[in-house]
Design a protein that fits this description.
10 helices, globular, single chain
Length: 356
Amino acid sequence: MVGGKGIVGFRQLLEACRDNKFVALGLGDNVVDGFKLSPIGRMLRNNLRDEFRRGEAGTAVYEGSSGIPMRENLSFVKETFDPYVPFGVTIEERFANGKVPLNDSLTLNLDHGHTLSCRYLINPSTSSEFMYKVQRQRKIWWMRYACDPGRFFISDPRQDADTRVQSVAIKSRLGGEELTLEQLELFPADAAALDEELGDFRIKLGRTSSKRIRPSMLRLRQCVEVATLQIVLDAFESGGDASMRIHRKLAPFKCGIVCLSDDPALMPELRDLAKHLCNVLRKANLTVLDCSERNGGRSLAKQLHHLDSIAVPYCLLLRDQCLQNGLFQVRYRVTTLSETIHISDLPEYLLKIVTS
């Protein structure tokens, strides 16, 4: 096993996982370059992006477009949904040849990257309280998906003396160093920086209120590639590359299917059953890795090791008796224990444990 408890520094951590199954990167004196996501790394990135876009409980969040100015996004939301404060608009923007600070000593160079932002429009009289609530929610969001929830913290707040913009960052501790994950900036309603984004935009103060106000804005931003790197490094530092303990909601594949037979003549039937179960689960929007056609005679231990190394949280083990009684085992990556269920329990059983 590579990685895990033997790694004591952030640079050592990057060095150890510089070419794993999720990311590839190069490491210079003060720079991380050559950053590439593998196909399953891109799946992880996309799952992270989807979870970010869900927003925080209790606040409506709408999807915006990076191809038009923010004030046009707001006009569309206002005309379509007739919202009131607080609400948010998420926007994804692509950039090329970007330099993203990881901490005070390292910068991530990206040939291509993605920035996710959510702009919350809020009541100026309660803007500080709202910012405090969101920064707490964002810290909890990161803790929820981590192997080590204790590594996340909120930076000391800052305020620009000229613009009066308040800012904090969500950070993590990895290998003894800090990694900046997200930035939160609170713009007062009369901030000059809001003129370009809001124009003369006014919004309802409440559901039944006719009063319209110029809102304050809380902007939350994250680089999706940095967020993906954080998830990989967190799992790598916690357990190494032998078992990547990535949260089931972020895992690229929710389950794998492995066929085991004592009678080679039954293997074609087991493979047909595996294909059928793949179709059932994919129709339920669960990503599945079918290992039945590609095991190449590998032992069960080697097949499970492969699934563990790419963070597959559940594995369906199909054996000969499954063809007679419909029973098979579901193996859990975290505990390595198995539970016997019936084919008729799919996909509901798996949906329940994945989404819980």
